[in-house]
Amino acid sequence: MESTLCKLTLVLPSSGAERVAELMLASEPQINGFTSWQAEGHGESFETANNAERVRGRVARTVFVTILEKPRAAKLIAELREQVPIAHMIYWVEPVSQFGRMKKESCDD
């Protein structure tokens, strides 16, 4: 049986990260978790880059990653498009063949 799990990755200007996090935390049905981190984007479009970013040749970005069912990913993408329309936000969806936790107890061991 084919897995219906997928990995949704969002990459967006860091200025919009709080709005995306708030939507993901409030979205129903609840998303069981996501990870975010700061990154630097290297690409062809620098029209919104500040002077420091133009000199360095890269722009500040925030990356969000979550694992969820494919229909839920499609719903979340639609919510983001409608409620948090951020210019230069990109996304992609990848299949996930396995997903689980290594250990459920405390990490103190």
Structure description:
With 109 residues, the chain is of the alpha+beta class. The protein has one domain (8-95): Alpha-Beta Plaits. Helix content is 28%, strand content 30%. The protein contains three helices and four strands, in the order E-H-E-H-E-H-E. The protein has helices at 17-26, 51-56, 70-83, and strands at residues 5-13, 35-41, 59-69, 90-95. Strands 2-3-1-4 form a four-stranded antiparallel sheet. The protein is globular, with a radius of gyration of 16 Å. 15% of the residues are buried.
Choose one word for the global shape: globular
Distance between the termini: 36 Å
Estimated share of beta-strand residues: 25-35%
Q: Identify the strand order in the major beta sheet.
A: 2-3-1-4
Helix residue percentage: 25-40%
Largest sheet: 4 strands, antiparallel
Helix-strand makeup class: alpha+beta
What is the class in the CATH system? Alpha Beta
Average pLDDT:
87
Tell me the CATH topology: Alpha-Beta Plaits
CATH architecture: 2-Layer Sandwich
Number of extended strands: 4
Number of helices: 3
Radius of gyration: 16 Å
